[in-house]
Amino acid sequence: MHNASRIAELAVASILFLVALTGALQLIESTSFTIRQVDHANQVKDRNVRATMEPMRSKPLTGADVILFISQLRENVELEVEGMDVKSPILLEDIQFNSISRTKQYQLHIERNEDGDIRKMIFR
Prior knowledge:
Elements: H1 2-43, E1 61-62, H2 63-72, E2 78-81, E3 84-86, E4 105-106, E5 108-112, E6 118-123
Parallel strand pairs: 2-6
Antiparallel strand pairs: 1-4, 2-3, 5-6
């Protein structure tokens, strides 16, 4: 009888060990699968470093952006928007903002002098 209880204890311990081993192997497998998925997702990402600030002229501006730009400009430059030339110093009263379409897309073109200073800013 004593041997039968020892055999039963050994059988239960063996079964518990096998259940724990199976659970550990499944956990390792699922963790490995997750790591492979994350690694694959990271491999397809672009790792090139890019500047976060783009030059203003690289993207189109709306008419509302142009009006805001003109109202904040303090430099001595000439502006041309929709065929309207504005010479410096820029007085906001002299600008006909209603002739600038708020929804139209504009590109900024900059003309510079020989020294590289901005001479004229053209919104087309």
